[in-house]
C-alpha cells in the first residue's frame, strides 16, 4: 500500500512497536500502514460513520468521536504518539484540542495546511477570492476548514503553550520537503503544509 505523501512524512516520525492514537483517522489509511509496517498498537478516532466503517473493514480498532468534545475522556499519557493530520483547522477550538492531544500522548504529530503558502497569497492578491487548491480544495461556503493559520501561527501557538517542537518538516503537495525549513518568513512562504513532532513539557493554562 502506497501512502499519501503527507501521511508518508508523518509515518517516518513514528517508531516501531509503540502505542498510537490517530485522531481524525479518516478511512484508516495511515493507521493500517503503521500497523502492518511498524507493528504499532494502532487505535483511532473518526467523526464520520463512513470513515469508521472503512477502518473496521481494514481490521482497525476505531471509535466514532469528535476531537472537540471527546478527547477530554482519554486518560493522561495513554499513548506514545497521538496523530492529528490535516484536521486541527476544522475544529471549533484548536487550542483546546492541541492541549488535549499533548495531555493524552507523550508526543504528538500534527500536520496543518499553510494558508501563508506563496500560491495562496498570489491567489488572493490577483483573483481577490479565497484560494481553492489541491491542499485547500473546498470553496469558502462548503469548507470544513474554519480556523485557517500559517505555519508561523502554529509555531507561535506551540510556544505560547510551552510545547516543544522536536522535529518539523515543510512539504509540498507531493510530499517533497521545501528548501526552506525551520522558523522564518521564507519557510512560512514556501511550505505548502507543515508536519510537526511535538513534546509536551508543562502546558501553560491560559
Helix content: 25-40%
Which parts are unreliable, with pLDDT below 50 for 5 consecutive residues or more? none
Provide the CATH architecture: 3-Layer(aba) Sandwich
Mean pLDDT: 88
**Structural class based on helices, strands and sheet pairing:** alpha/beta
What is the assigned CATH homologous superfamily? Vaccinia Virus protein VP39
Main sheet?
Answer: 7 strands, mixed
What is Rg? 16 Å
CATH topology: Rossmann fold
Tally of individual domains: 1
Account of the 3D structure:
The chain is an alpha/beta fold and 206 residues long. It has one domain (5-115, 146-199): Rossmann fold (3-Layer(aba) Sandwich), CATH 3.40.50.150. It has helices at 5-11, 29-38, 49-57, 67-70, 94-104, 118-127, 151-160, 185-190, and strands spanning 19-23, 41-46, 61-64, 79-85, 105-113, 164-171, 193-199. It is globular, with a radius of gyration of 16 Å. The mean pLDDT is 88.
Which tags fit this structure?
Rossmann fold, globular, alpha/beta
